[in-house]
Amino acid sequence: MAKGGRRRGREGWRMSTPARKRLMRDFKRLMQDPPAGISGAPQDNNILLWNAVIFGPDDTPWDGVTSEDVDSREEAFDERFQASDAGPSCWHKPDDTPWDGGTFKLTLQFTEEYPNKPPTVRFVSRMFHPNIYADGSICLDILQNQWSPIHDVAAILTSIQSLLCDPNPNSPANSEAARMFSENKREYNRKRHKQCTNNYPKHRTSSLFSLAPLY
């Protein structure tokens, strides 16, 4: 999309509701000081709907992707998604941990009650994880009973990133994954590797910022 089109699409961001003002602050903070391994942005015409990516740990083709503005960040993401041969939702190094090198897409749906109420967060990528449901929704305390208005988008994504590497099998959303993680980590890791390398057709995908929502 042309820069002018992005600017026109973002005119709706300026509506001065408390939720939208807060989301603009969240976005500016995320762009100015992005935590390692995460990125996200609102859709052009809807600041209440965000697309995000959680990157795998260090030593991946995605490590260190940063940008000083939205336009160059979108171009960088698009180039890397277009170049990937591992499919739209996962880029994996089979000799490392189950999540190392992965690229995992999410959507965040906010309401006008944010930040008093959390967003609805779902993975677009298929996930085999003890705390992720089949529809991509996430069993995470800060998105439920431990939500606080102090949590911003960066905190949400960072918490989800931590959950990937440190599951809670005592609060399972996927009973098979929880059982396997607790009883047979080797098989759990094998299944994660297989999902990353085999589940997705090898084709090009659209930019992060034009992902269609799941809702």
UniProtKB/TrEMBL annotation:
Residues forming the catalytic site: C139
Protein's recorded name: UBC core domain-containing protein
Source superkingdom: Eukaryota
UniProt-listed PANTHER family: UBIQUITIN-CONJUGATING ENZYME E2
Record field: transmembrane: none
Domain (UBC core): residue spans on this chain: 18-201
InterPro entries: Ub_conjugating_enzyme (IPR050113), UBC (IPR000608), UBQ-conjugating_AS (IPR023313), UBQ-conjugating_enzyme/RWD (IPR016135)
GO molecular function: ATP binding; transferase activity
Signal peptide per UniProt: none
Protein's UniProt keywords contain Cell membrane: no
Matching CDD domains: UBCc_UBE2A_2B
Keywords annotated in UniProt: ATP-binding, Nucleotide-binding, Transferase, Ubl conjugation pathway
Similarity field: Belongs to the ubiquitin-conjugating enzyme family.
Alphabetical list of Pfam families matching this protein: UQ_con
